[in-house]
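Quick entry between incubations.
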Amino acid sequence: MAVFSLFQKVSQAPTNPQPAAPTRTFDVADLYRGPLADGPAAPGEAGAAALDEKLRQAYFWIVNSAIISPHYDVEYNEGPSGDFTVGDTKSRLTLPSAQSYSSFVLLPLLTFATRRKCLFIGGPGRGKTASALLMGILAGYPVREVRRAMQHGHPQMTIADLLGSPLPADLVAAQKMEDIRIAWRKWLGLRVKIIDEYNRIPTRTQSALLTVMGDGYAELLDHIFECPESAWYLTANDDQGGGTYQVIEALRDRIDVIVQALAFNPRFLGDLLARIEDDLRPEEVVPRAIVFTEAEIDRLQTEIRAVAFPSDVRRRIEFFASQFEFCELGGAQFEYKTKDTARLAGTDWAALSAQDNGRDRLKDLGCQTRNGLSVRNLMTLLIYAKAMAYFRGHRTVDLEDVRQVLPFVLHAKLQPDLEAPFFDAPGNASLRQDRIGWLRRLFDLACTEYDRLDLDRDDPAGALATEFRRGLEGVSEPEVRNRLARIERLIGEWARGGKLYGHLYDDLLQLKYLHQRYTNYLRWLKTQ
Amino acid sequence: MNAAFSRVLASARADFNRRFVEARHRYPELTPERFAAVLQGPGDALVAAAEQAAPGSAGAVAQAVYDAALLLVGQRLAGPDARHPWIQAVWADVLPRLGGLVAVAPERLIAALSNAAGQVAATPGARPEQWITLLRDLGPSCGSVEELLALGQVAAWRSGLSHYRTGALAAADRLPAALALAVVDAPPGSDWPVVRTDLQRNVWHQPGGRLERARLRVAARVGAFRGFGGLFAQPPRIAVALGHWLALADGSAWHLIADGWGATLHRAELPGDDSMPRPAFGALPDGLRLQGAVLRRGRDELDLSELGTLTSHALSSDGATLAVTGDGTHAVVLIALT
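Done. Structure below.
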C-alpha cells in the first residue's frame, strides 16, 4: 500500500520565489507541475535539488506542520514595514514586508547546516527538546535512535554515563591499559548530538563533555574516541545559573547560538487539541524529502562557506566589535587598556567604571558591556551570517543578515553592564531583561555611529591598511618613509582630537602595527 | 460505488480514515460531504474504467484516486464548490476514457493531467475546454503514457499556452504523425514535416488555414486594465530587452509571448539600468509607414485609431509581428506582418 501522508507533504512551490529574469525560457514539462506530486521522487533527485531550497523546505515544514510556532521575530523588510505602537509603554509591533522567520526554528536549522552548537533556553514544556529531536531526524536518524541517543542531564550523571565504560572482563584480565576495551556510548558517533538540561550535569562530568564538544573526541583510560563533526543541541530551563550545577564558563563559551523558546500563544490551543485527538506526532512523519544525507550536509557546509562577505558589511562588524574591549583605565600600557586586563586582575567593575568619567557614558557603546568579543565569537558571527544569507537563497551576505543573527550569537557572550546609564535612559529599561532586543539595538546604534562618522567614505586607517595589504614588494625607501610619516601624522591628528573610544583605540593599535611593519621593512631595505 | 473500489476502501478502512484526518489538518475546508461527492462521482468512474481495462488494477488506482481527491478537494480544486470546473472535468471526461493507461501509471497520470488542467485554467486567455476536448477525443489513440503526456503538451500549446511553443513542437515530433496532425488541426493526410516547418517558420500559421492571406492585420490584443481583471494598472508600453518583448506598466514588467494560438504574459524582473529598455514610438520597420492613425504597407492598411495616441512599438525578433501600444487602451496590440 502506498505510504501517504499530507502531513508529510513538502511544498513543490519555491519557498523563496524570486522575480523572473527578463529573459526566461519555458519548459513544456512544467505543464504537469502543480499541487499533485506525480509519484515518489526518483533516487538521487533530492540530492540534485538546490540545498538552500531543501533547507527552506525543512524550515517551512517544521514551522507549518511540526511546531506550533506563531512567532516571527527574525524580521526582514522589502520597502516600508507596517509599524504600530500599542499600549501605555508604546510597545512597537512590526508587520514585516518580506519573508520573516521564527528564530526558534531558524537558528537550530542554521546550526544543523553549519554543524555548530545551539542552546535552547526557556521554561519547561515549550518544545525545546522536541525541536532538538527534529534536527536529529533531519540528519536521517530514526526517531527511536535519536530519542535513545539524547543525553539527559541529571545530578548523578557520571563520566561513564556520558562517555561509556570499560568492559568489566577486560578490567580484570588486562595487563596494560591498551588491553582494556571501552564500550563507548552510541551517541558519540551521531552527527547530531542532543544534551537535554545540560545545566543539571555535575561539574566534573561537564568537563568531560567540554572535551567532546570543544575538541571532538572522548577519552577514557587512555583510549580515544574520535567523534564525527556534529551539530549540537543543548537545552536548559535557565541559562543564568539556575540549574542544579553552575555551568562551567568554558562549556558555555563553546555554545555558538542561544535561542529562546517563546511562550505558547493560547490562540493556537485548537491546533494542540487536534493534535491530541488525532494522535499526531510530527517527529514520526518527517517527510523524506527534507532529510539530509551526510554528503548533503557536507555540501551545505561547503556552499555556506563560499557565500561572499562584502567588505563594507565586514567593516561594519569590525566597527561594532571594536566598541567593547577597550577600557581606558583597565591598564597603563596602551595595549593592555582592556576590560579583560581588569577582569584578570579581579578589579571591582563598579569601582572601575565609576572612575571612568572622561567620556559620554551614554553615547559610548563600550560602556554598555562588561566585556569584549572573542575571536571565537566573531568567527561564529561570520559563519552564521553566511548561513543566514545562504538560507535566504543569496550568495552574498548583506547587512541585515548580520543584524538578524548577531543577537543570537552574542546572547551569552556580551555581558551587559546593567548599571550603565544607557539602561536608565527612557524606554530602555526593558532591555535589561531582553538580551536579544538589547543586542540588536546595540548593533543599530553602532551602525548609526558608523554612518555619522561617514566611515564608508572616509576611513584613513582603513586606507592605510589597504595600501599595506597590496604588499611591500618593490616599495622604495622614500615611499616607506612617506607612509610612516602619514601614519604618524594621522595618530597625531587623532591624539589632538580628545576622547578615546573603542573604535579609535583599535584603529590606533592597527596604525601601530602598520608602523612596526614598515619600520622593520625599512630596516631591511637599509641592509640591501 | 463499483464493487472493486468498495472492496479496496473496505480493506484498509482505518488507513484511509487516518489519511482523511491528516488531510483535514492541513485543509480545514475538506468536509466528508465534499470529499464523498468526488470519490463517489468521477473517482468511482475512474476506478471502474481502469479495472475494466486492466483487471486487478483497482487497488493501485483507488489509492491514487483517494490521495489526489483529498488534496484537490482540500484545496477546492475539485468538488461541488471548486474554484473552477476543469480538473473535475478531466476526471469525469478524460481519465475514464484512458482506463488502460491510467491502470499502468495511476498516480502519475492523475497528477499530471490534473495539474495541467489547473495550469491551463489559470492562464488568462487560454481555453481549458479546448484542451479537455482534444485530450478526450485524441487521448484514447495514444499507445503509451509518454505519448499521452506529449499529446497533452501539444494540446496545451494549441489551447493558448503559447510560451510552450518550442517544447510543444518537440513533443509533437514524438507523436505518431496522424496524431500530431490531428492535434494541430492539420488536414488528415498532410505531411507532418511540412506542417511542422510551416508552424516553426511562421508564428501566425495555423494548419487549419482559417487565417486569410498574409496582410496587415491585428492578430491579438494582449492584456487588460487591472480593474477589469487584467494585469495593467496603466496603459502599457512595449519594448524589446535581450531579444524578447517586455510590456512595461506602472513600474512592473511582463514577458509577452504570442503566436497564432494565444498570447501570454509572465511577470519579469525589471532589467538593470544598463539594459533597461526605453519604450517609444520611433521609426517604423522598413516598408511600414503611419499616416494619421492608419498603418500602411504598400496597399495594405490598418486603422489604429482605437489605440489613441501611439506610445510605443517593438518588432519581434523574427520580424513577423509588430507590437504597438497607445494611451487609449490597456492592451498591447499585435500586428501580424506575415
